[in-house]
């Protein structure tokens, strides 16, 4: 066990988005993804309502803002989903689109206009089926329109994280229910399409081709990554991290971002060298570990993303520790008092709690009081306005 014993005595592991980097561009990408799935002719091809522009790939910043306002209901949908410990913004987009799909299937069921043979021949909905589904929408009396506020109800009950998608499919009867259940599984074909569309919006055509070595489904996207802005002034972030290093803490990262979406930002803030490279865990490490589980046949489709504690445990023990040890039923618990996890979401809090880490929340990830309320409602004991308050908090001084 080389990680903690040889490398460090004390470690702070940071979530990134809402803590050091901003999540704004990801939320723009998520709203554009839902908009594309609903209104592009390649998918459902609905006629847009007056508040939304018709689908195209060269949208301007004002249009992006208005699409996000409508689809996420001025941020209420983002808070609603994040409060329920959904960490990945791919899942945020999938759940938001999936909810509209369920509303549509409910109407088709009630109006009894669905062609049963068409549904019976499908085990699982894929993107190529969406244009066919849109023909069924045309047979509905009146014009069917998405209802973006409808997701803000009490349908999730106590479900959290990935269980929300399963919960959604339970709303549908019979064959619609089993079709939705298969379509909403983690890593389903429709989830993968949603992720790909999201990545096209976020990276833009050129970077998408570089990252995935293939053409995007819809060419002409510029890339929201070029609009990324730091959450706080970079010099304040750097000063804070330097203070913590000087006080003997090693610094790590556990983020849902892939490595190629993390490093350019850390480099632009001149903070990449402040982190211990063996303690930086990204979406790539999580995917690699999920692949390991698959080959070990430990689970068919199992997510190790937050709120699973895997990424915090890996950042704590160091990347050289084999997955097998980290994921063993005995688990590798952190040494008491030696580690702190800093995050802005209930998914971070649940993951930290599950693995036995001390958790400090920051409310900088959301507008107004939302960040504090979301964390305190989930049981966070300590919520600071942002990371610059951490050195004072650790020194036992009021912030
Ligand atoms: Mg976050």
Description:
- By secondary structure, the protein is mainly α.
- It has two domains: 3-22 and 230-394, HAD superfamily/HAD-like (Rossmann fold, 3-Layer(aba) Sandwich); 24-224, no CATH class.
- 46% of the residues lie in helices and 6% in strands.
- It has 18 helices and six strands.
- It has a six-stranded parallel β-sheet with strand order 3-2-1-4-5-6.
- The protein is globular and about 65 Å long.
- The model is unreliable at 1-7 (pLDDT under 50).
- Magnesium ion is lined by residues 15, 17-19, 343-345, 365.
Describe how the helices and strands are arranged:
Layout: H1 3-7, E1 11-14, H2 24-39, H3 61-71, H4 76-83, H5 89-111, H6 116-120, H7 130-138, H8 163-169, H9 174-183, H10 189-212, H11 234-246, E2 250-254, H12 263-268, E3 280-281, H13 283-295, H14 310-317, H15 323-326, E4 339-343, H16 346-355, E5 358-362, H17 370-377, E6 383-384, H18 390-394
Parallel strand pairs: 1-2, 1-4, 2-3, 4-5, 5-6
The protein binds magnesium ion (MG).
| Oligomeric state of the chains present here | single chain
Structural category is: mainly alpha
Give the overall pLDDT as a whole number. Answer: 90
Poorly predicted segments: 1-7
Content of β-strand: 5-15%
Characterize the largest beta sheet: strand count, sense, and whether it forms a barrel: 6 strands, parallel
What features would you highlight for this structure?
399 residues; mainly alpha; Rossmann fold; 6-stranded parallel β-sheet; 6 strands; globular
């Amino acid at each position: 066990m080389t990680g903690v014993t040889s490398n460090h005595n004390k470690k702070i592991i940071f979530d990134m988005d809402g803590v050091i980097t901003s999540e704004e561009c990801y939320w723009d990408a998520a709203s554009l993804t839902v908009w594309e799935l609903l209104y592009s002719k390649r998918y459902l091809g609905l006629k847009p309502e007056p508040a939304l522009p018709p689908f195209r790939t060269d949208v301007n910043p004002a249009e992006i803002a208005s699409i996000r306002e409508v689809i996420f209901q001025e941020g209420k949908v983002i808070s609603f989903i994040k409060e329920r410990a959904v960490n990945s913004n791919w899942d945020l987009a999938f759940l938001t689109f999936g909810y509209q799909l369920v509303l549509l299937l409910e109407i088709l069921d009630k109006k009894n206009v669905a062609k049963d043979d068409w549904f019976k021949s499908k085990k699982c909905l894929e993107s190529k089926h969406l244009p066919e589904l849109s023909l069924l929408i045309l047979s509905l009396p009146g014009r069917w329109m998405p209802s973006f506020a409808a997701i803000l109800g009490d349908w999730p009950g106590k479900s959290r994280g990935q269980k929300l998608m399963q919960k959604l499919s339970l709303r549908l009867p019979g064959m619609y229910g089993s079709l939705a259940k298969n379509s909403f599984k983690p890593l389903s074909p429709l989830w993968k399409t949603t992720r790909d569309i999201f990545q096209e919006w976020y990276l833009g055509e050129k970077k998408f081709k570089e990252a995935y070595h293939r053409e995007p489904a819809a060419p002409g996207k510029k890339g929201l990554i070029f609009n990324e802005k730091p959450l706080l002034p970079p010099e304040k972030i750097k000063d804070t991290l330097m203070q913590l290093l000087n006080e003997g803490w090693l610094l790590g990262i556990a983020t849902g971002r892939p490595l190629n979406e993390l490093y350019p930002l850390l480099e632009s803030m001149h903070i990449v060298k402040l982190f211990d490279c063996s303690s930086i865990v990204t979406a790539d490490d999580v995917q690699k570990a999920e692949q390991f589980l698959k080959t070990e046949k430990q689970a068919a489709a199992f997510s190790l993303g937050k709120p699973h504690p895997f990424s915090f445990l890996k950042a704590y023990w160091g990347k050289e520790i084999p997955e097998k040890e980290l994921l063993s039923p005995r688990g590798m618990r952190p040494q008491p008092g030696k580690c702190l996890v800093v995050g802005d979401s209930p998914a971070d809090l649940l993951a930290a709690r599950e693995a036995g880490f001390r958790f400090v929340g920051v409310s900088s990830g959301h507008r107004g009081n939302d960040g504090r309320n979301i964390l305190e409602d989930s049981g966070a004991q300590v919520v600071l306005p942002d990371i610059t308050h951490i050195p004072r908090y650790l020194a036992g001084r009021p912030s």
